[in-house]
Amino acid sequence: MSSFKKTSELLNSSNDTVTINELKGRLTHLENNQLSEIHKSLSKSSNKETFDRPCIETLQKYVSSAKPKNTNKNTRLWVSRFESFVNDTQPNIDLMTLYDKKAIAMLLCEFIIVIQTKDKKEYKANSLYNGICAINRFYQEIFKDREPFNIHEDFEFRIVRDTLHTRMIELEEINNGEYNGADPLTDEEMVKIFEHPDISSNSPDGLLRRVFLWVGCCTARRGGSYHSIMASHFKKRDDGGYNIVTIHDKTHQGGYYHQTNSNQQPVHIIPPDEPGTYGACHDIRKYLSLRPNNVEENFFLRINKDIKENWYSTFHLGRDKLSGMLKEICNITGIDCTNRRIVNHSLRKRTAQKLNDEGLDSQAIMNVTLHRSIAGLNAYRTQNEKQKLDIAKLTLPGISKDILMQENLEKSAEDLNTEQRIENLSSQEETKTEPFTEIQNITIPLKRKDDLIDNFRLKFVKCSNFTINITK
């Protein structure tokens, strides 16, 4: 014990307090001196700058724009539905001033069980989940100055999570596990659309629709992102094609919250047209050349009422008009949309499925669709019939393969017996006919029937069965 005490005293004595304070003082002096040098250099600036303070409306615009518009729209929709439910069932409760988590939890449980679409149909399970997430975002803003709020984690909302879990299972069974997604178009339907006379590049409507389809197929754009495509995003390539640069996308939002390590923007390639054909590049080049002067930067433009002077207006195509473009095209060209959800997003799903059917690996497909994860991509592609059949064959037990092999062996033995009978018949007829050895083992080339008759004169023996092996 005494030795430990002596050691401690030696350590304390070695760290002299005066010396340490002196070192700290020198460091503080250096830091203050550096700060004074910075301030001195700033004060020497001869040009005095003036600034305008942003108004409160401008500040509010920047703050509110941080969240995607679709997120805010979805939040307003579900909060409105929840508020309508509470006003109808509990008219004495004001959600805007209700800060009791247990009361909110009880109201949410009731809401989850009874809520339906406005036309009295059941929601898809994932739609209901997204709705509760939207309500959670709303209450996090309401409670931000009081206490943390999270339906997915707070113990007060365990009953809400259990109710939502059971209700989602129920909805999955009602809807057979289907989700409310877009349905893709087939290759046959795409060919039918492009060959329709109303989708001709010789009219302003037809050219606009063709360009829309080319861009959708080549870039796999999300349904609501066509409005953000600008004419400046199209860059000519040396080979005659185009590069379409994507500045911002759902998975590439940029800014402070979504910074990336790469300085390169995603680029989609529209390949050059084949020689002698008028394809995507021809239509896009023609469309860009018809843009009038002083036009808005948006790529998709309105069609002029009087097309004698200019086919297209200087104003961009409206968001609602553009959002229903593919459905309008399908109606015009006679594509059957019965029991199908055909929206602009269908082109994205069609491209992902086609690339999957062609055997491309997941990363190659994600480079086109701009998905961040394979899980996100899997929602857009399914196994085609050939892939399902190949996998199903691999699941068969080994006995089926043995049976198939046995059948092949039996068939081969039967063929050998047939050949033996032919040889026996041939030998019996040798005394009555010319020698057959000259025409045995003849290989007949695969030609047209007429050529075969003209070029070959075969002597056939009289027999009940005769086999000719034709090889390429």
UniProtKB/TrEMBL annotation:
The keyword Chaperone does not apply. It comes from the Eukaryota. GO terms for biological process: DNA integration; DNA recombination. One of its GO terms (molecular function) is DNA binding. Keywords: DNA recombination. The keyword Electron transport does not apply. This is Tyr recombinase domain-containing protein. It comes from Rhizophagus clarus.
